[in-house]
Write a structure and sequence with these properties.
The protein is α+β, with helices and mostly antiparallel strands and 88 residues long. The chain has one domain. Helices cover 14% and strands 27% of the residues. It has 1 helix and 6 strands. Strand 4 and strand 5 form a beta hairpin. The longest helix has 12 residues. The protein binds zinc ion (2 copies).
Length: 88
Amino acid sequence: MTRRCAWCRKQMGEKCPKCGSDRCAEIAKVRGKTPVYGCDECRFVFREGQGGITHGMCDSCMREAKARRSSPVTGSLARTPGKGGPEK
Ligand SMILES: [Zn+2]
Ligand SMILES: [Zn+2]
């Protein structure tokens, strides 16, 4: 299950479609084929994107959301995140 940021659409990795754990590691990489992941928790093996997409929030958007919440509201005009790329 692909984890994607609902705000900036950045991909945040894979999540196990069975138990929901994000402790997944790519176990097989074949060129031209969908990568295969293995869940560390329940040992479930799944393909990238299997089970659909789950939306969350990446670290930078989370920070932005927090900053926005603590600062006085400046109308409904939302600043578009995603400029300059994600910071690690
Ligand atoms: Zn984001
Ligand atoms: Zn699992």
